[in-house]
Amino acid sequence: MQTNLADFIKGTADGDEAEAILRACVHCGFCTATCPTYQLLGDELDGPRGRIYLIKQVLEGAEPTRKTQLHLDRCLTCRNCESTCPSGVKYGRLVDIGRRVVDERVPRPAADRIKRTMLKEFLPRASLFKPAFNTGAALRPLLSKALQDKLQRPRQAGHWPTRSHARKMLVLDGCVQPAMAPNINAAAARVLDALGVQLVLAPKAGCCGAVRYHLNDQAAGLDDMRRNIDAWWPYVEQEQVEAIVMTASGCGVTVKEYGHLLAHDPAYAAKAGRISMLTRDLSEILPAFEEQLAAALRGKIGERIAFHPPCTLQHGQQIRGKVEGVLRAAGVDVVLCADSHLCCGSAGTYSVLHPEIAHELRDRKLANLEATGATQIVSANIGCMSHLQSGTDTPVRHWIELLDRALSGAASTP
Question: How buried is 190 (Cβ within 10 angstroms: 0-12 exposed, 13-18 middle, 19+ buried)?
Answer without folding.
Answer: buried
